[in-house]
């Protein structure tokens, strides 16, 4: 083995090889970059041979050939887009791992225009002087929510952190034990509160909290009662929670204590009228008497990742002036996408239904069935290696939203004559664009609730390429 390893070519020898210049030209690299790739591959090849992960007979006849081949593969992978397009065949509309909400065409066009040009991000065109990015969409948020004032930060966790830091630091915040939720990535309300400097006061029990629990916890040190909407889990059975309206009435007797509700997902469209979930409208919560609400931009709203805060003007003004507001601010492209998303809500039902998130959630199962049947017919006529059948199933909303809600849908359940479901799903994820499916009863299942009509051709091509 040592004798063979001594035959591994030195980097300076490989730099003289004609293949070195060919790779530089083909992949638009400079000599230093390509040299680093070669050094890494030489080291990797040596380690693999020593660990007997690679047979010496496979590479010993021509080490240079093996190295240049491996380097080309690594360069090709390195130059691919890290953030890649994916076809979501899971049926989960707000799939956190797949980027949650798809933006509307109008939002995408506005983002492109804004990114390609200078903009009035912080400039008053009429007055010819510095402006504030907070002003750009505040009027749209006010109209959409019915609040006195509003602002936006980079996500809802940031909104919670800002509110607690600015309005309750070193003071007490009362929260029901049943609402001390954990969101994705092990981020907990209690941990965010601790980082903010606010002091958590837990009331009630895991399954039951009464109004008197809040009343008894109020003290001179209380800055805020915080209600956390449990949008990412549902508790059933022997339970009791205090509704927003009840807490608002209690707050009328304690004007010096703020009432803040973290809505999590936050809905501007009433999905309940379609029989889907029981999410409260942001407007309804504000009208109930809360001082502040916060919610996400990229969940039920159907826009970009953002944390939206709405409520009393005096409180919003304080938040805007806080030092963290700059730390947590959003960029021009997020503002552009959010602006067009909010305009759709204000334009009426037809425009709202064009938002991909809303459209996919309320989409009738009958329409999905037609689309699934069409795909099955195309796949069967294009390949003899697949067996496909139409099945009734259910879709999930996802994104920690509407827990337990299952929406009727139709799927294509697909089996390959030679590949297992796991093997086929791996191949599908390696196509371009990648296809993410779900596996059920040893079949690869594609839920067409989250498949756009424009993706049908690419979906079929992906299956044919995975034969």
Automatic annotation (TrEMBL):
One of its GO terms (molecular function) is L-seryl-tRNA(Sec) selenium transferase activity. Its cofactor is pyridoxal 5'-phosphate. It is found in: Cytoplasm. Its EC number is 2.9.1.1. The modification N6-(pyridoxal phosphate)lysine is found at residue 299. The keyword Cytoplasm applies. The keyword Cytoplasm applies. GO terms for cellular component: cytoplasm. Pathway: Aminoacyl-tRNA biosynthesis; selenocysteinyl-tRNA(Sec) biosynthesis; selenocysteinyl-tRNA(Sec) from L-seryl-tRNA(Sec) (bacterial route): step 1/1. One of its GO terms (biological process) is conversion of seryl-tRNAsec to selenocys-tRNAsec. It is an enzyme of class 2 (transferase). Belongs to the SelA family. Converts seryl-tRNA(Sec) to selenocysteinyl-tRNA(Sec) required for selenoprotein biosynthesis. HAMAP family: SelA. This is L-seryl-tRNA(Sec) selenium transferase. It comes from Planococcus antarcticus DSM 14505. The lineage of its organism: Bacteria, Bacillati, Bacillota, Bacilli, Bacillales.
């Amino acid at each position: 083995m040592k004798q063979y390893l001594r035959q591994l070519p030195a980097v300076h020898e490989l730099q003289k090889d004609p293949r070195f210049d060919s790779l530089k030209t083909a992949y638009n690299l400079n000599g230093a970059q390509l040299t680093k790739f070669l050094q890494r591959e030489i080291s990797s090849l040596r380690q693999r041979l020593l660990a007997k992960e690679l047979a010496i007979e496979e590479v010993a006849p021509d080490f240079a050939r093996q190295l240049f081949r491996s380097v080309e593969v690594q360069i090709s992978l390195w130059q691919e887009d890290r953030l890649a397009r994916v076809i979501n065949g899971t049926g989960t509309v707000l799939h956190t791992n797949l980027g949650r909400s798809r933006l509307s065409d109008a939002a995408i066009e506005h983002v492109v225009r804004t990114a390609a040009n200078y903009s009035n991000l912080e400039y008053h065109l009429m007055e010819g002087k510095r402006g504030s990015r907070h002003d750009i969409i505040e009027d749209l948020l006010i109209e959409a929510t019915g609040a006195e004032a509003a602002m936006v930060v980079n996500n809802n966790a940031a909104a919670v952190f800002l509110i607690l830091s600015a309005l309750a630091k070193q003071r007490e915040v009362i929260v029901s034990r049943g609402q001390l939720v954990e969101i994705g990535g092990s981020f907990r309300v209690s941990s965010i509160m601790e980082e903010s400097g606010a002091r958590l006061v837990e009331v009630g029990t895991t399954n039951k909290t009464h109004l008197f629990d809040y009343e008894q916890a109020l003290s001179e040190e209380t800055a805020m009662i915080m209600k956390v909407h449990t949008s990412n889990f549902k508790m059933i059975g022997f339970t009791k929670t205090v509704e927003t309206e009840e807490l608002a009435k209690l707050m009328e007797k304690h004007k010096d204590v703020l009432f803040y509700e973290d809505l999590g997902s936050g809905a501007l469209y009433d999905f309940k009228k379609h029989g889907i979930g029981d999410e409260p409208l942001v407007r309804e919560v504000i009208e109930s008497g809360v001082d502040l609400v916060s919610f996400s931009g990229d969940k039920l709203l159907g826009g970009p990742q953002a944390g939206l805060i709405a409520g009393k003007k005096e409180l919003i003004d304080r938040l805007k002036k806080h030092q963290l507001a700059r730390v947590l601010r959003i960029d021009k492209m997020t503002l552009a996408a959010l602006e067009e998303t909010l305009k759709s809500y204000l334009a009426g039902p037809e425009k709202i239904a064009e938002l991909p998130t809303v459209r996919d959630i309320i989409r009738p199962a009958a329409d999905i069935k037609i689309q699934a049947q069409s795909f099955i017919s195309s796949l069967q006529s294009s390949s003899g290696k697949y067996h496909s059948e139409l099945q009734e199933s259910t879709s999930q909303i996802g994104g920690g939203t509407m827990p337990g809600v299952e929406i009727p849908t139709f799927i294509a359940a697909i089996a390959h004559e030679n590949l297992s479901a796991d093997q086929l799903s791996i191949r599908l994820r390696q196509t371009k664009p990648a296809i993410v499916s779900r596996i059920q009863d040893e079949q690869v299942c594609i839920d067409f609730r989250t498949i756009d009509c424009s993706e049908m051709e690419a979906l079929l091509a992906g299956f044919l390429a995975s034969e």
